């Protein structure tokens, strides 16, 4: 019996279930390169004399927004909002199946878990890629027909990098959803996977400094190395720091490779994850334990950093304080689990 | 060689670290039989069924449906297996025709004509959204799907849940027709009248353990209630009867409930020379209740003041 990655019936079901979300994503993603240009050109056609700056067909008018976007990535929708929407979409299409328990219906039909998750990924990734290709072709077409402030090369570079980052974010969020048990946990895990390396590196850097664990004179290089790796592990960083002419092809290839690895990992985890509706929130371990340890470490770290900053001290007293706060928060969690309503 | 519709060996399921839902279950359901699974609430019936359908994984042990190992991740395993869960989990935003559209695409033996006939017969509007359907209507939809895939094996978890008596009986009649044409039926139920009417084999499960599996006729033939009066009270030998489920006393009359070895026990009781003796049939419901009580499942409470 062959294990497939694509199932037409499932793809039909996914489209039927998520088409509104896909159209919504298309509209939001098309605001700058497509709708804003069409809107400007249409206004220019209707009221040619009312336009300033050389008329609607002037490059400065219709292509200003696109040029900012493809030359320096300066567009908050594509840089900030769309990655979040893609993350939420990936989490939703998996977690929603669990929250309304429809996964039970699905898994009782003749489809494999691999087909279920893989079809979700391929359809979602296909839609994202199709939207991006459409936008690139649109920019290309207008660039050929009208004088534009951006070059085809800039549009191409922006398209390559942005599409690869979107796909990697989609795959990573899908991975987060495939190892968790409900929407909230999946979203939390996706945020951690996607955005946390940079924040974590900052916290670790501060904490190590507070513990006086860096050799004094090497403090800055150590932190810079940590920040460098953390930045490159944070997918939205590539969108934030995009600049035409500085694109590293290897970076794009590595991001695409990462997307493929996330996708394969997501399938492997999903194939081995229990599908109980009220099962564990994380397939890897006891979710309550993870929450307890994670939150305790985070709160202890933040408290230690703040105390080191206020008292201007570092070394073992801060380390001791860190351990103390960790045990206090852990004890509080244990108390809440024991006596609180933890249903 | 006997062909098995369902074959389960040493199957266990532990939730978390220590909650044992199924404990070393061995079960074999012959192809073409109607098999009823009985057990009190929380016995592990639904867990067993979900494991068979690949929804959750066993902690240990193996199982095969129609000779195919359930650990095989391929979906083809389920293409001729119908499953109706106790609670229906269709997509709430889908129309009934969308659900049927998906099933039609995914089941290779989907019988469109039969589906249409069943929809009409059971009065299910295809233009309604699933969230607009009542619990009973959703159950009807699940049964219609199960019958439209032309199954070789039907697995039902509380099949009557949410259905009125007329509709329930009609669906059961259709499943019996499927069984007559060679399909295996495996169902769990609390409705013992339904089970008595349909099943040819039964198994009783309690606290995750399989107590026994046997032919229903054989079980009933070996089970009776014997009422007897002994001149000098209840003889000690009665307590050692094999298959004894319970002894009840009403005045001088002892009711000896036997769950097995009826003929052998009857001879033994006769040998004790009772003053009076009578044999009564015992309903499946009583038999089940006595069996459960013997196994320690009792919720007897004193009368509340």
Give the gist of this structure.
By secondary structure, chain A is mostly helical.
Shape type of chain B: elongated
Multimeric organization: heterodimer
Pattern of helices and strands of chain B: EEEHEEEHHHEHEHEEHEEEHEH
Number of helices of chain A: 14
> Major sheet of chain B: size, sense and barrel closure?
6 strands, mixed
Specify the number of helices of chain B: 9
Pick out the low-confidence regions of chain B: none
Q: Between the first and last Cα atoms of chain A, what is the distance in angstroms?
A: 41 Å
- What is the gyration radius of chain A calculated from CA atoms? 24 Å
Tell me the fraction of residues in β-strands of chain A, as a range: under 5%
- List the chains of the largest interface with their residue counts: A-B, 34 and 34 residues
Strand content of chain B: 25-35%
> What's the pLDDT, averaged over the residues of chain B?
91
Approximately how much helix is present in the residues of chain A?
A: over 70%
Distance between the termini of chain B: 61 Å
Helix and strand run of chain A: HHHHHHHHHHHHHH
Shape of chain A: globular
- Give the strand order, joined by hyphens, for the main sheet of chain B: 6-7-8-3-9-10
Mean pLDDT of chain A, to the nearest integer, reads 87
Which features would summarize this protein structure in a list?
heterodimer, A: 343 residues, mainly alpha, globular, B: 305 residues, alpha/beta, four-stranded antiparallel β-sheet, 14 strands, 30% helix, 29% strand, elongated
């Amino acid at each position: 019996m062959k294990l497939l990655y694509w199932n037409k019936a499932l793809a039909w079901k996914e489209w039927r279930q998520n088409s509104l979300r896909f159209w919504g994503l298309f509209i939001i993603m098309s605001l700058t390169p497509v709708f804003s240009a069409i809107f400007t050109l249409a206004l220019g056609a209707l009221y040619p004399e009312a336009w300033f700056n050389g008329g609607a067909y002037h490059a400065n008018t219709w292509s200003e927004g696109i040029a900012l976007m493809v030359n320096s990535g300066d567009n908050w929708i594509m840089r900030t909002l769309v990655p979040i929407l893609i993350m939420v979409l990936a989490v939703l299409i998996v977690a929603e199946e669990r929250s309304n328990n429809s996964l039970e219906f699905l898994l009782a039909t003749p489809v494999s878990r691999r087909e279920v998750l893989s079809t979700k990924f391929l359809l979602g990734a296909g839609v994202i890629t199709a939207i991006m290709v459409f936008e690139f072709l649109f920019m290309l077409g207008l660039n050929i027909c009208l004088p534009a402030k951006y070059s085809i090369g800039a549009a191409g570079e922006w398209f390559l990098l942005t599409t690869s980052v979107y796909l990697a974010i989609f795959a990573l969020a899908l991975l987060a959803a495939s190892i968790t048990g409900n929407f909230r946990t999946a979203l939390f895990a996706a945020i951690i996977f996607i955005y946390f390396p940079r924040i974590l590196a900052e916290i670790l850097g501060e904490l190590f400094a507070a513990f006086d664990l860096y050799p004094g004179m090497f403090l800055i290089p150590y932190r810079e190395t940590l920040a460098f790796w953390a930045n490159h592990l944070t997918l939205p960083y590539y969108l934030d720091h995009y600049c035409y002419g500085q694109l590293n092809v290897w970076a794009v290839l590595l991001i695409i490779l990462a997307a493929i690895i996330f996708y394969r990992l997501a399938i492997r985890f999903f194939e081995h994850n229990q599908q109980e509706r009220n099962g564990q929130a994380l397939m890897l371990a006891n979710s309550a334990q993870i929450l307890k340890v994670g939150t305790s470490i985070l709160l202890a770290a933040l408290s230690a950093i703040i105390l080191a900053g206020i008292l201007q001290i570092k070394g073992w007293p801060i380390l001791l304080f860190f351990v103390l706060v960790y045990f206090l928060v852990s004890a509080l969690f244990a108390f809440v689990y024991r006596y609180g309503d933890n249903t | 060689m006997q062909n098995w519709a369902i074959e389960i060996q040493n199957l266990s399921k532990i939730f978390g670290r220590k909650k044992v839902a199924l404990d070393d279950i061995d079960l074999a359901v012959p192809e073409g039989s109607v098999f009823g699974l009985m057990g009190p609430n929380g016995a592990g019936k639904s867990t067993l069924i979900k494991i068979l359908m690949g929804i959750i994984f066993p902690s240990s042990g193996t199982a095969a449906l129609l000779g195919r190992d359930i650990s095989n991740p391929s979906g083809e395993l389920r293409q001729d297996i119908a499953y109706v869960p106790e609670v229906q989990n269709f997509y709430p935003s889908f129309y009934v025709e969308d659900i049927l559209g998906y099933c039609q695409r995914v089941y290779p033996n989907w019988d469109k004509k039969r589906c249409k006939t069943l929809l009409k017969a059971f009065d299910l509007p295809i233009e309604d959204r699933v969230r607009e359907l009542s619990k009973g209507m959703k159950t009807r939809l699940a049964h219609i799907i199960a019958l439209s895939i032309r199954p070789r094996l039907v697995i039902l978890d509380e099949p009557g849940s949410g259905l009125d008596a007329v509709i329930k009986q009609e669906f059961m009649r259709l499943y019996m027709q499927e069984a007559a044409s060679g399909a295996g039926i495996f169902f769990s139920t609390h409705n013992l009248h339904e089970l008595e009417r349909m099943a040819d084999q039964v198994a009783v499960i309690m606290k995750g353990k399989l107590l026994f599996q046997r032919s229903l006729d054989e079980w009933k033939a070996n089970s009776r209630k014997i009422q007897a009066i002994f001149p000098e009270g209840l003889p000690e030998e009665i307590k050692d009867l094999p298959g004894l489920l319970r002894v009840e006393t009403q005045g001088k009359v002892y009711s000896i409930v036997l769950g097995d070895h009826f003929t052998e026990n009857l001879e033994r009781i006769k040998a004790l020379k009772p003053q009076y003796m009578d044999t009564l049939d015992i309903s499946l419901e009583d038999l089940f209740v006595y069996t459960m009580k013997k196994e320690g499942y009792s919720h007897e409470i004193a009368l509340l003041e």
